[in-house]
Fold this sequence. Notes:
Elements: H1 4-27, H2 31-61, H3 65-87
Amino acid sequence: MNDLGVLSKILMVALVVTFACALGGAFLPGTASVWSGTACVVILIAVPVLRVTWLVVDWTKSRDVKFALLGCALLVVLATSGAIVFLR
């Protein structure tokens, strides 16, 4: 039930990929730099959301209702702020 080892491996891969994208954004010429930098920012935004979602699922499976509800509340705040950004 506790898949935190898998989550930590995913986060380590994301760290390496983000670092590679950041280097590409800094040193590649032209549009490759823009795409690499954009990928870096997307990963930096998506990985914490993935982590919270993973933990909410894990807390729900272990019947830890308080933490699951707090994680869901955080995801609702993130979704609401994202919707506000796209609607403005």
